[in-house]
Structure formats: C-alpha cells, structure tokens
Amino acid sequence: EEGGAGRRGERERAEEGPAERGPGAAFHMFVLMEDLLDKLKLLSYEEEALRRHNMRPLSRHYFALPTNPGEQFFMFCTLAAWLISKAGHPFEQPQECDDPNAVISNVLSELRSF
To answer: What is the pTM of this model?
Structure first.
C-alpha cells in the first residue's frame, strides 16, 4: 500500500498548477525563453536565420507570451528548419501558407531521423 500511496502523491504533484508548485513556477517559462535566446545568439541566429528571411530578432519573452500565434508558429517553424539544416540535415524552409499540421509532421519526422 505504501508504494501505491507514494505514486499517487507523485501524480498529484505532477498535476499541480503553477501556484501549487511555488511562487517562482509562474516565471519558469520566461527563464526558459531567455535561455533559448542566449543559445540561439551563440549560434548566430540573427545573421544566419533571420536576415535571410528578413525577420526581426526575438524579444526576451517572444515564445513565453501568446501575442500572435500565427506569427509565433511561423517563427518557430523557421527556427526549427534552420536548426535542422545547421545540424547537417537538409530541410526545406516552410512557407507561411503551408498547412501547420504538415509542417509539424515534417519537423517531427526529421527530428526522429536524428
């Protein structure tokens, strides 16, 4: 019975919202976004990815706050395609008019092939 109760407690903690996990949990996504941005800068994403597509650099909280889902999705796809290509796998840059499900399917398929 102890094992069952322990697993139940773990499950309950996993289902807790940000308020139940502590005061800093609500800001975790902002920290992750800043880490992502630092890593992209180390890879020279501004010169290699954004300039090629005539796009603006990301703000510190670009993906942390839902502002324009269509634009954010296209930016995500652009960065994913660039990172896949940078890793040595040729990958066609998605277009804004492409079917989002097909784009995500292609990205995931390419990542699985790694």
So the answer is: 0.72
